[in-house]
Amino acid sequence: MAESTPETHVIDYRAAEQLLAARDPRGAVKLLDSVIAAHPENTAARLLRARAFFASAQLRSAELEFQLVLEREPDNAFAHFALARTYERQARPDQAKRHFRLAAALDPKPDYLAAARFEEEGD
C-alpha cells in the first residue's frame, strides 16, 4: 500500500466528496477514515464523514461526528441543521427542534427557518 501523504489525503477527501455525490456513502466513509486518522483536527473531513454516515443511515455515528464538529465550530449552522435531521430520523423531536432553531438563528436560510417552526412557540 502506498504511503499516505498530505497530497493523498487531499485526493482521498475529494474522492470521498465524489463518492457521496454518487450515492456511495460507505465508500466515502472508508476514504475519510484514513484522512481523519492522519488529521483528526480536520473539521471539513469530519463534517463530510458525518454527512456520509447520515446518508448510509449510520445515525449514531453521524450524531457523534456532527457533535464533534459543533464542539469545534459552535456557530456552524449547517452542522446544527444536519444534527437536527439526524435527531429527527432517530425520533428525538425535542433535540431536533433545538438544533433546527440554532441553525435558523445562525443562518436564516428559508429551509432552516421552515424546519425551525418558530411560529409553533406554544410547544
From TrEMBL:
Q: Which GO terms describe its biological process?
A: proteolysis
GO molecular function annotations of the record: peptidase activity
Question: What Enzyme Commission number(s) does the record list for this chain?
Answer: 3.4.-.-
Query: What's a Pfam family in this record?
Result: TPR_2
UniProt keywords (A-Z) are: Hydrolase, Protease, Repeat, TPR repeat
Instruction: Look up the domain of life of the source.
Output: Bacteria
Q: Which PROSITE patterns match?
A: TPR (PS50005)
Repeat region (TPR), residues: 77-110
In terms of InterPro entries, this protein maps to: TPR-like_helical_dom_sf, TPR_2, TPR_rpt
Q: Which residues form a coiled coil?
A: none
List, alphabetically, the Gene3D superfamilies matched: Tetratricopeptide repeat domain
Q: Which named protein is this?
A: Beta-barrel assembly-enhancing protease
Which species is this UniProt entry from? Streptomyces hundungensis
